[in-house]
Hints:
Blueprint: E1 6-7, E2 18-20, E3 31-34, E4 40-45, E5 53-57, H1 58-76
Antiparallel strand pairs: 1-5, 2-3, 3-4, 4-5
Amino acid sequence: xxxxxxxxxxxxxxxxxxxxxxxxxxxxxxxxxxxxxxxxxxxxxxxxxxxxxxxxxxxxxxxxxxxxxxxxxxxxxxx
Length: 79
């Protein structure tokens, strides 16, 4: 399945409430996602707050997050 990813327009940049990853280490190496995503998740690099933002369908974003969590659980339970 190929998902459409595009840059968010400059007008959208001022209308977004951002939420940092719950796994942020505090050293600035994390991503932020719009807190009120409905149909489109907007993702940015926290080190580049005025840089490129990616728009991803929320269904694809949810699948990505689920996959990351599953992989983390598998690694945590592997001797």
